[in-house]
Amino acid sequence: MPGNSFGQAFRFTTWGESHGPAIGCVIDGVPPRIPLSEADIQPFLDRRRPGQSRYTTQRQESDEVRIVSGVFEGETTGTPLALVIENQDQRSKDYGDIKDKFRPGHADYTYWQKYGIRDYRGGGRSSARETAMRVAAGAVARRVLAHLLGEEQVAIRGALVQMGADSVDRLRWDWAEVDRNAFFGPDAAMAEIWAARLDEARKNGSSLGAVVEVVAQGLPAGLGEPVYDKLDADLAKAMMSINAVKGVEIGEGFAAAALNGEENADELRMEDDEVAFLSNKAGGVLGGLSTGQDLVVRFAVKPTSSILSPRRTVDRFGQETEIVTKGRHDPCVGIRAVPVGEAMMALVLADHLLRHRGQIG
Ligand SMILES: Cc1cc2nc3c(=O)[nH]c(=O)nc-3n(C[C@H](O)[C@H](O)[C@H](O)COP(=O)(O)O)c2cc1C
Q1: Average per-residue pLDDT for the chain
Q2: What are the angstrom distances between the C-alpha of 126 and each of 57, 188, 206, 241?
Q3: What is the CA(191)–ligand 1 centre distance, in A?
Q4: Is the model's pTM score more than 0.90?
Q5: pLDDT tens across 71-108, in order?
Q6: Cβ of 207 less than 6 Å from ligand 1
Q7: 243 lines ligand 1 (CB under 6 A)
Q8: What is the spatial distance between Cα 296 and Cα 253, in angstroms, rounded to a whole number?
Q9: CA dist 204 to 85, 195, 331, Å?
Q10: 3-class secondary-structure state, position 116
């Protein structure tokens, strides 16, 4: 069946295309009596909004969200919550070149093969314009978590930890720095290096990949379901569903394969009558259930496929040709993927919190 929905107890469905009149989502399962207004959602959309620096696409969208269902007198009603954003800055003429040609690395070829019809304007449904609604739904998920667990209990934050081959120095990690530079980077010195590298890539008609890390702090232990809906399995699906993501890891991830059993063991002690782990190689999940430690997810984002350097391709008539993708594109899509990753984390956690309460109370 069509895969435009995500989650079980907290389930959202998105609709809309890059250059259609609007994009939107419906969220089902929002508990009633949670105070909610557009002002709770807008700040998160503003962080993802395009055109905020020369390192992101210059498409200008105010991304003003409207709640059109599910809220009465400032509180959720328990009925489906519907959110809408009008598209404002479509320039479909920029996309004449990709009307018949398939961009290497983009979804043009596969959409054409599957459906036999393709809204090529801005990438249609495959455009990351859709991720604005994930961020909007994620803001609602954050309100659910705050309402049920306590206002300051859970912190969900993301950061860019690598661009191209250049990684942050974790000794210089500063969460406050994330909102001070154009990359959501936690290392001010590395942000300057990234700026130079990305300027160079743009000048050469190229693009760069990135790695994003998302951390949730303050979770209770026990969220998650055995065995197919493990918390880490659902997080992996959530992150992998973001456009351009090619790899996901939890905690030590792929590096765990090079550790021995002693190095990888997160030993347990008692501190003030509470269980305390001495390390967090597992990334906050054991047996698919949260341990109560930081939940740590990283995902790799490929370099933008729409680039000005000519690439060989074919057109829909079976002719070999070349393509130069003009129009407005993110030179490193990993940057704007940071708020999207945070949103997907919030959505998975809200879903699992509601499922947990459904069974365990
Ligand atoms: C926030 C964000 C912005 C993106 N912006 C662009 C873009 O400007 N140009 C582009 O070609 N791809 C962009 N992408 C990636 C494409 O949407 C994606 O590569 C395409 O849908 C094909 O899907 P896949 O890469 O997941 O296989 C962006 C992705 C994200 C997460």
Answers
A1: 96
A2: 16, 33, 21, 11
A3: 22
A4: yes
A5: 999 999 999 999 999 999 777 666 777 899 999 999 99
A6: no
A7: yes
A8: 10
A9: 34, 14, 11
A10: coil
